[in-house]
Design a protein that fits this description.
Layout: E1 3-7, H1 12-16, H2 19-28, E2 33-39, E3 52-57, H3 65-77, E4 83-86, H4 91-102, E5 106-109, H5 114-121, H6 134-144, H7 151-154, E6 174-178, H8 190-200, E7 205-208, H9 214-224, E8 228-229, H10 237-245, E9 249-253, H11 256-262, E10 268-271, E11 291-292, H12 324-339
Parallel strand pairs: 1-2, 1-4, 2-3, 4-5, 6-7, 6-9, 7-8, 9-10, 10-11
Helix pairs in contact: 3-4, 8-12
């Protein structure tokens, strides 16, 4: 049986975005074995197919540092792969890929479009045009390895994951809201987000997703409104994924929760701050009507960076230009379409 290693170590959103193309591979090539190499916590995303296995990296111990990378290469070589797909293209994966190439393995690496990204995000002489979505850049890697994958034609959504508990079955429609992101420049003002929660919780069951210090705010909202719960306080990661796969709608920043919902065919409304859908990181199968962005006539330097980590003076309140009522209206449209 032929084996293909798939390298993608982080971040959560980027790892989740590999899922649709890996589904296509497993479906179209059932006699091939695909091995996802990533962090242990991401394993729940890669349990759908019998010809898909998971190899977890241990960057805290066994695979830590430069010697750890060489140890990881040796460990992966024992898997006896035929091909290597580097979907990360960072120093660690570059070293591993190079070592496999030295041993005459077929290796292909993700094109991160660094030059195009720079043109899109720079302040002067900005080239504001959409980059190829990252899902299709992943597809490109596998097609260069000799596979014939068409993400649009070949992808099939799975059924929602079975919930371990009956406590999340309601007569109301289920709306997930993930109001935070890694960088503050991608977080919709919390006073406006609270209004969205207050409105949608009147007729729907609302679930709030976050972690760490974010939970303090989410728990406050949970106690302030009926039909609002914060499952992140008592569910593990696998259980959160199960719940997200059963939602009727997810409202998310440009962040991982939106990507998780999208791979289970849950409609996703994304709210973009200092980033923009043109960067290529829209959720899978996204439509323009579900993408809410900053007013570029007022804030023409958007996107300021690919990941939303670059702050610009005068852009601190740029997300307030995103119409609150427009988000609510679109959410109602989606929910009404599902219920009709």
């Amino acid at each position: 049986m032929k084996k293909t290693l798939i390298l993608r170590f982080s971040s959560l959103g980027d790892v989740v975005m590999t899922v649709p193309i890996i589904r296509c591979l497993c479906e179209r090539y059932p006699n091939d074995q695909f091995v996802v190499v990533s962090r242990k916590k991401f394993k729940p995303f890669f349990e759908e197919y019998q010809n898909l296995t998971f190899f977890h990296v241990d960057f805290e111990n066994r695979h830590k540092g430069l010697f750890g990378i060489f140890r990881l290469f040796k460990d992966l070589k024992k898997v006896k792969p035929n091909k290597v797909a580097d979907l990360h293209n960072v120093l660690r994966t570059k070293i591993i890929s190079f070592l496999f190439q030295l041993c005459f393995f077929n290796v292909k690496t993700l094109d991160k479009m660094r030059s195009e990204r720079k043109k899109l995000t720079r302040s002067k002489n900005k080239v504001f045009k959409p980059l190829t979505p990252i899902h299709f850049k992943y597809q490109e890697v596998f097609n260069k390895l000799g596979y014939q994958i068409d993400l649009i034609k070949d992808h099939k959504f799975p059924t929602p994951k079975a919930l371990n508990s009956n406590e999340f079955f309601y007569n109301k429609q289920k709306v997930g809201i993930a109001p935070f992101a890694k960088h503050n420049g991608k977080v919709y003002p919390l006073d406006l987000m609270q209004k969205i929660i207050a409105y949608l919780s009147q007729n729907n069951q609302v679930f709030l997703f976050g972690f760490g210090d974010e939970l303090k705010i989410l728990e406050k909202w949970e106690s302030s409104y009926k039909n609002v719960e914060c499952p992140s306080t008592n569910l593990n990661f696998s259980e959160e994924i199960q719940l997200i796969s059963n939602l009727d709608l997810m409202i998310s920043m440009d962040s991982a929760n939106g990507h998780i919902a999208s791979i289970y065919n849950v409609p996703v409304i994304t709210i973009w701050g200092l980033t923009h859908p043109y960067t290529g990181f829209s959720t899978f199968n996204s439509v323009k009507e579900n993408q809410f962005t900053v007013d570029r006539t007022k804030f023409p330097l958007i996107p300021t960076s690919i990941y939303g980590n670059k702050k610009i003076n005068g852009y601190e309140e740029s997300m307030r230009s995103i119409d609150l009522n427009g988000i609510i209206y679109r959410a109602n449209q989606i929910l009404n379409q599902i219920s009709s």
